[in-house]
Amino acid sequence: MALSVQDIRLIEKHLKDELSPEEQITLEDKKKDPEFEAELNLYLTIQKSTTNFSRLDVKKDFKAWDQDEPIRLNPLKSSTTWWKIAAGLVILVGIVGLLNKFAFNSAAPDLYTQYYEPYPNLLDPIEKGESTSPSLTQLYELENYEAVISLPMTTAVDSFYVALSFMELGNQEFATELLQIFSRREDFRFKDAAQWYLALNFLREGQTTLCKQFLMEISINENHDFRNPAAELLGKIGSN
Length: 240
Fold this sequence. Notes:
Elements: H1 5-15, H2 21-30, H3 34-54, H4 59-68, H5 80-96, H6 109-115, H7 136-141, H8 145-150, H9 156-168, H10 172-182, H11 191-205, H12 208-219, H13 227-236
């Protein structure tokens, strides 16, 4: 079912116990529609799942990895910290796996192209007359994605832009692995962007249920940088 922005706002207020008496009547009336009720139940499941996940004690591992250890693309060659991160990913996959009981609707392929825009280099944008030795993020800005992924990832920000480069190169697997990490890091400055691009990555792969999970989470967060496009895209999925 394609939810309208008004439907999403109504569900959001319901989750926060902020419905007026009139809105409560409207919600109860809408719940008579089995498709709307399924969407509402999906929101409730996501809220419960993300709350449970936030209680997991993985933040300290992410911090240690960010500060002390570069990432290598081959997990078999990395340190034990990588396996701790991988364990966090397994937990996340297990949580979202609960959502598979809901209908899996295919999103139209052109929705991805309608909503995808390359994320800008916000770290060190290129200026005129700058040196000819660009940083990893400047190589990303220059759209030299092959060069980006060939460099060591020494910080979390580097890894985020590497994930975006993998998206540009059509390698969804590596992009997903990295973006899933950053989408749950409360201390990561690009967390909002990581969630948005992860949702788009799932959309591109045809994993509509996972895409909707992140779009819903984004759309009910009034402070999220991508709340409006997420709510709009969520409303279109299901009608294609």
